[in-house]
Amino acid sequence: MASPTSSVITLRINGENHTLPVDHRTTLLDALRERLDLTGSKKGCDQGQCGACTVLLDGRRAVACLQLAVAAEGREITTIEGVADGDRLHPVQQSFLDLDGYQCGYCTPGQICSAIAVIEEHAAGWPSAVTRDVRPEAGPPPLSTDEIRERMSGNLCRCGAYVSIVEAVARAAEESRTHPVRAPKEALA
Length: 189
Fold this sequence. Notes:
The chain is α+β, with helices and mostly antiparallel strands. The chain has helices at 28-35, 91-98, 108-123, 145-151, 162-178, and strands at 6-13, 16-23, 54-57, 60-63, 76-78. Strands 2-1-5-3-4 form a 5-stranded mixed β-sheet, sandwiched between helices. Helix 2 (91-98) crosses helix 5 (162-178) and helix 3 packs across helix 5 (162-178). The longest helix has 17 residues, at 162-178.
């Protein structure tokens, strides 16, 4: 019998179901790292401020340290371990590799998951705080350096690899426009 403060849940992560008992207070990040050995998502601040634990929930980025595991049941969770297509890197991963969009690498999994969502959000026409013309008929704004910086602002890099990160996101966005790849299973709503 489950206690009133725990439940057995099934999480769909990277296309696979994982059933596990969890305390209701367990964060998605702790379930991923401590219970399922998916350690790509990093625990940085544990307060939702650094973005190192960013994952995709139904195609949208979320900081896993603030998401309760029980609230993620029934949603499609994509971690850094699930963005590549077998041995073929996702274009964002390849761009980070090609352009040195990392230094120590600690923030890189969260940066990559966030960048994947940024590119999808931009393509869908979502404005950012620096978008000048937010009218739907204006279409997506150019994905300028300012746009990328604003859209990626929830992900911190203590090494200061921001110039390379912005270049990597821009290259991956261009690659996705010219050579569409397998999109995450979930689509932006």
